[in-house]
Amino acid sequence: MKLSELVEQTGVASSTLKHWIRVGLLPPGRLRNKTTAVYDERHVDRALLILLMRDDYRASVEQIRTLTSLIDEGTSTLEVMNACQAFALGTPPGSATDPALEPFRERTYELMRRRDWRGYPGAAEQGLVHALATAAGVGLDYDVDALMSYADALEPLAARNVTALGPTGSADQVARRMLAAINARARQLVAVSSLAHAAVSIREAIDRGDAPEDLAKPPARG
What we know:
The chain has helices at 3-10, 14-22, 41-57, 61-72, 77-89, 102-115, 123-137, 144-165, 171-208; strands at residues 30-31, 37-38. The chain is mainly alpha-helical and 222 residues long.
């Protein structure tokens, strides 16, 4: 396909595509003659991945290059998925060995042992360690039993999500689907959690007599 067709299929301006080629994020097209290059589905997949990382995650050129270089090395699907989790979670370097995180690391390992969850060492495991430490820092200190309650609810959802997304397609397609899903899932979980916290606060206000009984009810069914 011509550059104009690549623009049409991806929605990315030609000037932006040329910039991505110049900085090494997007492979150059195959030269058909001295002035014309042609592109294929590989370029479509890569451009859409870059677009998602830039727009949904505000990723820098170097962050995008780290992931796309890994893909270009021909690594396995599981390694690509782990790299996507590492990027999306944004766990600081050194978290895997930081001695200050040891209590949270042991909680994470105990959760994995109890549920027979695999993923060590991995980005998701290290991400949970860091998340637990961050939560404890603001007064939300989750023990393993509390984590098990979350896991009871989330594991069946995870199974359905994995089945729905599937590891099929090119590595760029797998990475794009996974990053899009992580972003959407995080927003959904935060929104449900926020709604639950709002509901509890309102219920307590009603129980105290500080708010009317019918405060903030959803509209009746039509």
